[in-house]
């Protein structure tokens, strides 16, 4: 061992979550076996960890972006493997899901170097050295503003600068509540973004209230009228339940006329001019199609299958007039995203507007396609809003291909927004 021990360098030590981090260990003996370990304590109180086993080169250095992991939670040359391969520590309760609730604080990742090629149980070993890095969804000076105007509920994120900026109406999925992390990251890349709360809203009597289409139109109009927004450059991004809503309103609403639409892990199956309540109703009618895997984890993907032949039960994709980006995990066990994408493509080809459609379809990817380097979660607990009970849902996907899909689809999402919402003269792509 070098006289003063090894040095662990993490660069940058603070950055956005979609930026790559270089992890390097110096001043080791040559051909020395070490284990690199990463640990995050989540806001839910869970510990998530990863590890890679390495052997130093002739100069006593290990560089994660260059050297092969010889085993652990990932193998081979994987520069970001210490992040995307994270999983709950062995003593965790099953069904954990990795998520960021307070976007105004960073994830703090502790990287450590251990002597030898270890398995787990790191609490019984003392690291040779450690370093901490911060990973943010929110860039400096991005404003976070809670919105209740016009009866809508959400959080608005505004990039620094005079503007006006392009904007994104962000509709996350069926977990309900206010999900802010994606909107915060979009604002960090130069877009005003409204994380709209639309699922799980309760009445004064405590009953579940399904918002109607006017609610989404009001949110869209709110964005268009905001002084920091370019009214002709507003996009809609839907995830899961947000997909049929986004597509449906795009085809017939006289108010919601987005510049482009991004759809992640969803479907176009809903009655023509239908609403969120109609999507729920269609799912409820097919509860007999619910399946379970060998560990009794619930599979919902069959609830909307087969894709209807009746055009009145689907969004009229032939009437789409703006560019559409579909992001599909081919192992999605929650929504029939692959079958829906194929049908949407066929409908648009027949109508002659398929030039507007881009499909990113990823083998081995599941339902929860998040921004890059987020740990893959194949299954997790899920609270049923009306029943107020929890089930374990199978989301699908395998860690390596799912992680690849998250990285590529996010890069292509930003490029898609850049192409359709910004002028060619745009200079910067994010605020950091």
Automatic annotation (TrEMBL):
<dbReference type="InterPro" id="IPR029058">
    <property type="entry name" value="AB_hydrolase_fold"/>
</dbReference>
<dbReference type="GO" id="GO:0006637">
    <property type="term" value="P:acyl-CoA metabolic process"/>
</dbReference>
<protein>
    <submittedName>
        <fullName>Acyl-coenzyme A thioesterase 4-like</fullName>
    </submittedName>
</protein>
<feature type="active site" description="Charge relay system">
    <location>
        <position position="240"/>
    </location>
</feature>
<dbReference type="InterPro" id="IPR006862">
    <property type="entry name" value="Thio_Ohase/aa_AcTrfase"/>
</dbReference>
<dbReference type="GO" id="GO:0006631">
    <property type="term" value="P:fatty acid metabolic process"/>
</dbReference>
<feature type="domain" description="BAAT/Acyl-CoA thioester hydrolase C-terminal">
    <location>
        <begin position="212"/>
        <end position="422"/>
    </location>
</feature>
<feature type="active site" description="Charge relay system">
    <location>
        <position position="367"/>
    </location>
</feature>
<dbReference type="InterPro" id="IPR016662">
    <property type="entry name" value="Acyl-CoA_thioEstase_long-chain"/>
</dbReference>
<feature type="active site" description="Charge relay system">
    <location>
        <position position="332"/>
    </location>
</feature>
<dbReference type="Pfam" id="PF04775">
    <property type="entry name" value="Bile_Hydr_Trans"/>
</dbReference>
<dbReference type="InterPro" id="IPR042490">
    <property type="entry name" value="Thio_Ohase/BAAT_N"/>
</dbReference>
<dbReference type="InterPro" id="IPR014940">
    <property type="entry name" value="BAAT_C"/>
</dbReference>
<dbReference type="GO" id="GO:0047617">
    <property type="term" value="F:fatty acyl-CoA hydrolase activity"/>
</dbReference>
<comment type="similarity">
    <text>Belongs to the C/M/P thioester hydrolase family.</text>
</comment>
<feature type="domain" description="Acyl-CoA thioester hydrolase/bile acid-CoA amino acid N-acetyltransferase">
    <location>
        <begin position="18"/>
        <end position="149"/>
    </location>
</feature>
<dbReference type="Pfam" id="PF08840">
    <property type="entry name" value="BAAT_C"/>
</dbReference>
């Amino acid at each position: 061992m070098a006289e003063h021990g090894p040095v662990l360098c993490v660069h940058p030590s603070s950055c956005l979550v979609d930026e790559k981090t270089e992890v390097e260990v110096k001043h080791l003996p040559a051909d020395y076996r070490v284990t690199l370990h990463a640990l995050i304590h989540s806001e839910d109180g869970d510990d998530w960890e990863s590890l890679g086993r390495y052997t130093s080169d002739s100069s006593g250095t290990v560089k994660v972006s260059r050297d092969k992991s010889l085993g652990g939670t990932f193998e081979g040359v994987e520069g970001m493997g210490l992040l995307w391969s994270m999983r709950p520590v062995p003593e965790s309760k099953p069904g954990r899901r990795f998520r960021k609730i307070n976007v105004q604080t960073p994830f703090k990742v502790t990287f450590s170097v251990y002597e030898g090629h270890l398995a787990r149980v790191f609490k019984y070993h003392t690291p040779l050295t450690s370093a901490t890095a911060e990973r943010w969804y929110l860039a400096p000076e991005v404003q976070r503003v809670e919105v209740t105007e016009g009866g809508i509920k959400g959080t608005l994120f505004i990039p620094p600068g005079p503007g006006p900026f392009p904007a994104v109406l962000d509709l996350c999925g069926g977990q309900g509540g206010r999900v802010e992390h994606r909107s915060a990251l979009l604002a960090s890349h130069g877009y005003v973004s409204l994380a709209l709360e639309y699922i799980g809203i309760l009445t004064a009597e405590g009953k579940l209230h399904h918002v109607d289409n006017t609610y989404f139109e009001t949110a869209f109009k709110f964005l268009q009228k905001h002084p920091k927004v370019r009214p002709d450059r507003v996009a809609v991004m839907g995830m899961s339940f947000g997909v049929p809503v986004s597509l449906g309103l795009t085809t017939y609403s006289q108010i919601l006329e987005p510049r482009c639409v991004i759809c992640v892990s969803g479907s176009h199956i809903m009655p023509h001019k239908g609403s969120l309540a109609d999507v729920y109703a269609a799912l409820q009618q097919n509860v007999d199609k619910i399946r379970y895997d060998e560990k009794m984890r619930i599979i919902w993907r069959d609830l909307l299958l087969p894709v209807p032949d009746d055009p009145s039960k689907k969004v009229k994709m032939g009437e789409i007039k703006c560019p559409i980006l579909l992001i599909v995990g081919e192992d999605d066990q929650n929504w029939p995203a692959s079958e829906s994408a194929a049908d949407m493509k066929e409908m648009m080809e027949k109508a002659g507007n398929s030039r507007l459609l881009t499909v990113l379809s990823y083998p081995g990817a599941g339902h929860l396609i998040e921004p890059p380097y987020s740990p893959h979660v194949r299954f997790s607990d899920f609270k049923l809003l009306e029943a107020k009970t929890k089930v374990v849902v199978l989301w699908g996907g395998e860690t390596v291909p799912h992680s690849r899909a998250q990285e590529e689809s996010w890069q292509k999402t930003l490029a898609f927004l850049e192409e359709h919402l910004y002028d060619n003269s745009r200079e910067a792509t994010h605020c950091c």
